[in-house]
UniProtKB/TrEMBL annotation:
InterPro entries: Gfo-Idh-MocA_inositol_DH (IPR050424), Gfo/Idh/MocA-like_OxRdtase_C (IPR004104), Gfo/Idh/MocA-like_OxRdtase_N (IPR000683), NAD(P)-bd_dom_sf (IPR036291). Residues 3-122 form the Gfo/Idh/MocA-like oxidoreductase N-terminal domain. It comes from Parasedimentitalea marina. Residues 138-321 form the Gfo/Idh/MocA-like oxidoreductase C-terminal domain. GO terms for molecular function: nucleotide binding. It comes from the Bacteria. This is Myo-inositol 2-dehydrogenase.
């Protein structure tokens, strides 16, 4: 069966999802691209062969010729559009975060429960990245013994010219690390402390966070959205018998001008291209079978990372170690 997809948002991520579905995966059709800037959506549709272009996201989701929805619009629109898709009975791959606000995540979980079916997959694509998969496997197969610590670096070249507020270093960037650390360690966080090191005037500054898990492991996260030199994500999981370090896929090594070096990508699309492809393939399988895979992030995972992010924003403002308090996990997600 060919799955007809609506992509909401034709910005950097909407365009990348559209490209992946149109050029890398079988039995899927770009049915409609939706963006407030219809000329941007039209240019993408012409390039990738999408059937139609519209500007109203709700109308796009509700169309009879749409089977499944990808939401890649601005963060604050994610939850409401996800609810529209759930209420229409359409599976949805929603970019992270599910919402910058915990209460909205709870509403999404309630809507799924009321329907009696999971409809939401969250775009925490790092769960599908082969290097994080190795890390998780080294824990689950016993190679590393007990997990003790996890170190994480998350560096972007710069922030988009508009729309990226300081808190988004935590809610929109660090949320990847919150989720992937929960996934790799198989645990939840109990506290977060956040520091703002010296930054450059007029730019979103770096944030350094220290988190404790309920199993007493320590996770630290550096986010620097204005690192300038390249997109650079690093991680190391330390266990009682050794450690696993993420290896960034590198295709070439340069020998030039008395130096040997590798280059960095400008953003996350190249670094995580295989993760995105595997994630979107997994989503199509979810649409076909109605069953979530073990790797995929669901609405509960979206809620948890937003709960950690909310505590992180509060911790940064207060300078205090802040508790992460989660609601009890609904039986529906167990
Ligand atoms: C962006 O939205 C992403 O999803 C990237 O993976 C992340 O590295 C970046 O910091 C976010 O702003």
């Amino acid at each position: 069966m060919t799955i007809r997809i609506a992509i909401i948002g034709a910005g950097i991520m909407g365009a990348d999802h559209a490209r992946i579905f149109a050029t890398e995966l079988p039995s899927v059709r770009l049915q409609v691209l939706c963006d407030a800037a219809t000329d941007r959506a039209k240019a993408l549709a012409d390039q990738l062969g999408a059937q139609d272009v519209v500007s109203n996201p709700e109308a796009a989701i509700l169309r009879d010729d749409v089977d499944a929805v990808v939401i890649a619009s601005p963060d604050h629109t994610h939850a409401a559009l996800t609810l529209t898709a759930i209420n229409a009975g359409k599976p949805v791959l929603c970019e992270k975060p599910l919402s910058p606000n915990m209460d909205e995540c709870i509403q999404v979980m309630k809507a799924e429960e009321a329907l009696g079916r999971q409809m939401v997959q969250l775009g925490f694509m790092r769960r599908f990245d082969p290097s994080y998969s190795d890390m998780k496997l080294a824990l689950t197969d016993g190679t590393l013994g007990q997990a003790l610590m996890m170190h994480n670096f998350h560096r972007n070249v710069d922030t988009p010219p508009t729309g990226f507020e300081a808190s988004m270093a935590i809610t929109s960037s660090a949320c990847h690390e919150f989720d992937v650390a929960r996934f790799v360690l198989g645990t939840e966080f109990k506290s977060i402390t956040a520091f703002a090191p010296a930054g450059v005037a007029g730019k979103v500054g770096p944030v350094f966070m220290v988190l404790e898990t309920v199993d007493d492991q320590i996770v630290n996260i550096e986010v620097n959205n204005n690192a300038t030199y390249g997109y650079d994500v690093r991680g190391e999981l330390v266990g009682e018998k050794g450690s696993v370090f993420l290896n960034t896929p590198v295709t070439s090594k340069y020998n030039l001008g008395f130096k040997g070096y590798e280059s960095y990508p400008a953003d996350w699309r190249k670094r995580f291209s295989e993760a995105y492809r595997l994630q979107n393939k997994d989503f199509l399988q979810f649409v076909r079978s109605g069953k979530t895979s073990a790797a995929a992030a669901d609405a509960w995972d979206g809620y948890c990372s937003t709960a950690v992010a909310e505590a992180g924003v509060a911790a940064l403002a207060s300078g205090q170690k802040t508790a992460v308090s989660l609601i009890e996990k609904p039986a529906f997600y167990k």
